[in-house]
Amino acid sequence: MPPSPVPDPRPLTGEPLALDLLNTRWIDAEGSHDLLDRPDGLALWLSTPAVREHLGSAQVPADRAALDHLLRVRGALDVLVATPGQPDPAALAALNEVLAYGRIRRSLDTDGRPGSAVEVEDASWSPAWHAAESWLRLMDDRPDRVRPCANDECVLHFYDVSKNGTRRWCSMAGCGNRAKAQRHYARHRTA
């Protein structure tokens, strides 16, 4: 799928695939948004660099089946990020069910170099499977670095790759700047 000519409207992109899927919902000055509630939203998400990096040249239909599979994973991830360290059995079961529809096949190429390929039962499972597998990698690597934005009104999540692990905001230009402006206003208002 070629890149979409429509720009991605989300305020935070470029996160690992599982978090990128979570971040298909966001809140801004105009209200709440869900990229996956529009027919063209799924096609747009499938064309983003984060998704294309995982799917490669695989052709994935932007159809109801693919959307339903993704929404199932997003719902499970919503529960898991809300309860870190206390995994919800239903959310775990939902992710495990999606993961059962695919596998990583390891092999050697003709030159003897190792390789791997993702195989899914049906192309409509591919985006959901990759998002669930991305969550596994995050939980295996540094689960403490998966964080919600510190802005209570923000619903975005990020993977903190800062050296000292102290990132607080989905974006310093957005939520971080608003927090600084609010602190500044509160200091000067009391003075």
Describe, in plain words, how this protein is organized in 3D.
- The chain is of the alpha+beta class and 191 residues long.
- Helix content is 45%, strand content 15%.
- It has 7 helices and 6 strands; from the N terminus they run H-E-E-H-H-H-H-E-E-H-E-E-H.
- It has helices at 17-22, 39-46, 49-55, 64-82, 89-99, 126-141, 172-190; strands at residues 25-28, 31-34, 102-108, 114-120, 146-148, 157-159.
- The strands form 3 sheets. It has a two-stranded antiparallel sheet with strand order 1-2. The protein has a two-stranded antiparallel ribbon with strand order 3-4. Strands 5-6 form a two-stranded antiparallel ribbon.
- Helix 4 (64-82) packs antiparallel against helix 5 (89-99) and helix 5 packs across helix 6.
- The longest helix is centred in the middle third of the chain and has 19 residues, at 64-82.
Radius of gyration: 19 Å
Helix and strand sequence: HEEHHHHEEHEEH
Oligomer status: single chain
Low-confidence runs: none
Q: Mean pLDDT score, rounded?
A: 90
Q: Helix content range of the residues, please?
A: 40-55%
